[in-house]
Amino acid sequence: MSETGSHENVSDENLPSEQAQAHGAVEKADDPFADPGLPPHEHRIQDIDERAAKRSERTVALMFTVSMLATVAFIASYVAFPIDKIVYVWPLGRVSILNLALGLTLGIALFFIGAGAVHWARTLMSDEEMVDERHAVAADPETEAKVKADFVQGAKESGFGRRKLIRNTMFGAVALVPLSGVVLLRDLGPLPEDKLTHTLWRKGKLLVNENTNEPLRPEDVSVGSLTFARPEGLEHDDEEFNNEIAKAALMIVRLEPGDIKDKKELDWSHEGIVAYSKICTHVGCPVSLYEQQTHHVLCPCHQSTFDLSDGARVIFGPAGHPLPQLKISVNKDGYLEAQGDFEEPVGPAYWERKR
């Protein structure tokens, strides 16, 4: 009797079926696993206390403001700290103070944008769960109108229009963060100005053999041979050697004057000795393979092929223009010398060059 009586005293509203009907659940007859529905909505303190809502608003605004300050600190760090300054930071050890500052400030800037957005959503935007039945992908006019109305309602409940402090600080944080990427573009290096259009070659500069380190005479270059040269005064132990040789590297070939088809090439040569840039005009690899019978030189990287008997024009491969020629002659002491710089920039094309 006591067991039966206890069951009778249980309120009907505590039964799963009654809960399901109370909270919008769909109940099927004789279904022991009926959907219990959503629990009753519990209001947050921000929903019923405007002072609490204002505190949350100020907290979100503070996070967005911290993000803005961190972005400013990122830019200031980039300008203030030298790239080669190393400091000891436990437990990281020895690190670049510039990299450390950039990583911390950018991380803080991105973190507080996310944290502000999350705090805004959890404390101020509507958190009431809504049940909507599945519908076809193609919406009918009534559904479209409902979606638009829901969007307007959601925007209104988010307080985006009403809470101007959050809105303005969020705009500021999101607008400043991309400046970090813009500033990092400076790491591409200083502006080249006219450095790409000039090399160390000048009028009177002797052609120095890369293998012997001695100035070249015409008799040192035999027909069919390939010789590499550099400008006089550029030594291997120079601090800027790699930067300069990347532009000034020269290859010298001796052809029979009658085999030279291009008049300018013939005028710029000496007794069939022609001098061309060694830097491929595709991506800057060193051209180093010479075919004596055809007078062709081949770039080993991507097989661009140039005809040295016809102005070093491209006859195969991805290179976009001929190898630049260096005008040479012989000085009074019998050494090969340059008559000036290359007439056009060496190496791959870029948008500022004329060809």
Automatic annotation (TrEMBL):
Compartments it resides in = Cell membrane
The cross-references to CDD domains, in alphabetical order and at most eight, read: Rieske
Give me the segments passing through the membrane: 60-81, 101-121, 165-185
Segments for region (Disordered): 1-42
Per the record, the domain of life is Bacteria
Query: Which co-factors does it depend on?
Result: [2Fe-2S] cluster
The chain positions of domain Rieske read 247-337
Ranges of Basic and acidic residues composition bias in the record: 1-10
Pfam families xref list:
QcrA_N, Rieske
Q: Which InterPro entries match?
A: QcrA_N (IPR045603), Rieske_2Fe-2S (IPR017941), Rieske_2Fe-2S_sf (IPR036922), Rieske_Fe-S_prot (IPR014349), Rieske_Fe-S_prot_C (IPR005805)
**UniProt topology in membrane:** Multi-pass membrane protein
Keywords, alphabetical: 2Fe-2S, Cell membrane, Disulfide bond, Electron transport, Iron, Iron-sulfur, Membrane, Metal-binding, Oxidoreductase, Respiratory chain, Transmembrane, Transmembrane helix, Transport
Work out whether the entry's keyword set contains Flavoprotein. no
Biased amino acid composition, Polar residues: 11-20
Q: Which family does it belong to?
A: Belongs to the Rieske iron-sulfur protein family.
Function per UniProt: Iron-sulfur subunit of the cytochrome bc1 complex, an essential component of the respiratory electron transport chain required for ATP synthesis. The bc1 complex catalyzes the oxidation of menaquinol and the reduction of cytochrome c in the respiratory chain. The bc1 complex operates through a Q-cycle mechanism that couples electron transfer to generation of the proton gradient that drives ATP synthesis.
Cited PANTHER family: CYTOCHROME B-C1 COMPLEX SUBUNIT RIESKE, MITOCHONDRIAL
- The entry's protein name is Cytochrome bc1 complex Rieske iron-sulfur subunit
Identify the taxonomic lineage of the organism of origin.
Bacteria, Bacillati, Actinomycetota, Actinomycetes, Kitasatosporales
